[in-house]
Amino acid sequence: MSRAPSDRSLARELAERVKTEALRVGFHAVGILDAMPFERERRVSLERHSAQYFTGMSWLTADRLRFSSDVSNLVPGARSVVSVALAYGSPREWEGGARGRIARYAWSTDYHAEIKTRLVGVRDLLLATSTDAAAAVSVDTGRVMDRAAAVRAGYGWYGKNAMVLTAGAGSWVLLGEIITNVRLEPDEPLLTWCGSCTRCMDMCPTGAIVAPGTIDARRCISYLTIENRDWIPRALRRGLGAWIFGCDVCQEVCPVNSHAALASGSRAVDPEPRLAEILMLSEPEYRRRFRHTAVMRAGFKGLKRNACVAAGNVGGAEELPALRTLLTDADPCLRGHAAWAMGEIGGTDAIADLNRCGAHEPDERVRDEIACALVVARSRAGRGEIKRGHP
Ligand code: SF4
Ligand code: SF4
Question: Is 140 a catalytic residue?
Answer without folding.
Answer: yes
